[in-house]
Amino acid sequence: MRIKDFSNIFVRYDLINESPYYNVGRRKMSADPELQKVIDCVILGDIENIENVVREALAIREPVEVMYKGLLEGMREVRRLWDEGVYYLPQTILASDAMLMGLTMCEEKLGHPIEKRGIAITHTAEGDIHDLGQKIVNVLLRSVGFEVIDLGKDVPVEEVVAAVKKYRPHILCGTAHLSTTMKALMQISQRLRKEGIELPFACGGGGGVTLSYITSFAMGIYGHDASLAPKIADDAVSGMSWKELREKYNGN
Ligand code: B12
């Protein structure tokens, strides 16, 4: 017998039961219908429709609002679903891809000022592919005029050190999410010191990447939110040392 209707074969019944998003009356996370569509597309990993809904949202909302109240809000729910064991890798990868597609559009809409404010290097730690936070940092830094040298994800410690020596940035940014990869951030700090280089090293992420961990090594400044990156970078350009920046942003 040939199967004519596949719709019931690929249904995740656990999702229907456990996620409000797979039910008919989806939980509303935004009062704004355009932003809600963005949120839904991220949660559902709907890479076919994300560009349309982001375009519609950008027609009436500021790019930073679409980023924070749409894309990031959707990712917050994905995080919950993953943490509760409802989402597996495939759903999470699709959701992340949808978010990255939307982020690129927000960046295009924001545009970049012609006059450069300073140079920033960003990267996601060696062994780590959780780069969504880093991509948001890139967009925000570029939107205020920083030249961003994006080293990408899973960047070896030595590659980061070499890039700092080559470009002499005002600020280095790092993102990590795994307990196994966050050590790379500390290793970068140690290697830079060995080379006699000191600069503000702003870090964010998840898991063990906390205020106490990041401030346990030289140069580390903890940023709980990407929106801090342009502020820290601006202060770095104005000449504040990493110690002064740590005092200002981390209170120690
Ligand atoms: C999305 C996600 C993925 C996606 C990543 C896609 C991508 N392109 O990034 C995929 C599906 C690929 C993935 C894979 C894996 N993941 Co994962 N993943 C997540 C999840 C659900 C959300 C993380 C996220 O993207 N958040 C949204 C972004 C925007 O937040 P963010 O990066 O933290 O950034 C914010 C701030 O931290 C800050 N920030 C970040 N960087 C910076 C930098 C500066 C300078 C500043 C100022 C601020 C700042 O600003 C942002 C907000 O504005 C978390 C769950 C959780 N609780 O966090 C697990 C989680 C991080 N993953 C986890 C694991 C274990 C894995 C895998 C090993 C799973 C596996 N078995 O294969 C692999 C890892 C592979 C690898 N080598 O890296 C664990 C890590 C546990 C640990 N502590 O070690 C978590 C915590 C889930 C869990 N509870 O088990 N994952």
From TrEMBL:
<dbReference type="InterPro" id="IPR036594">
    <property type="entry name" value="Meth_synthase_dom"/>
</dbReference>
<dbReference type="Pfam" id="PF02310">
    <property type="entry name" value="B12-binding"/>
</dbReference>
<dbReference type="Pfam" id="PF02607">
    <property type="entry name" value="B12-binding_2"/>
</dbReference>
<feature type="domain" description="B12-binding">
    <location>
        <begin position="117"/>
        <end position="243"/>
    </location>
</feature>
<keyword id="KW-0170">Cobalt</keyword>
<dbReference type="GO" id="GO:0046872">
    <property type="term" value="F:metal ion binding"/>
</dbReference>
<dbReference type="GO" id="GO:0050667">
    <property type="term" value="P:homocysteine metabolic process"/>
</dbReference>
<dbReference type="InterPro" id="IPR050554">
    <property type="entry name" value="Met_Synthase/Corrinoid"/>
</dbReference>
<keyword id="KW-0479">Metal-binding</keyword>
<dbReference type="InterPro" id="IPR006158">
    <property type="entry name" value="Cobalamin-bd"/>
</dbReference>
<dbReference type="InterPro" id="IPR036724">
    <property type="entry name" value="Cobalamin-bd_sf"/>
</dbReference>
<dbReference type="GO" id="GO:0046653">
    <property type="term" value="P:tetrahydrofolate metabolic process"/>
</dbReference>
<dbReference type="InterPro" id="IPR003759">
    <property type="entry name" value="Cbl-bd_cap"/>
</dbReference>
<dbReference type="GO" id="GO:0031419">
    <property type="term" value="F:cobalamin binding"/>
</dbReference>
<dbReference type="GO" id="GO:0008705">
    <property type="term" value="F:methionine synthase activity"/>
</dbReference>
<dbReference type="GO" id="GO:0005829">
    <property type="term" value="C:cytosol"/>
</dbReference>
<feature type="domain" description="B12-binding N-terminal">
    <location>
        <begin position="25"/>
        <end position="118"/>
    </location>
</feature>
<protein>
    <submittedName>
        <fullName>Cobalamin B12-binding domain-containing protein</fullName>
    </submittedName>
</protein>
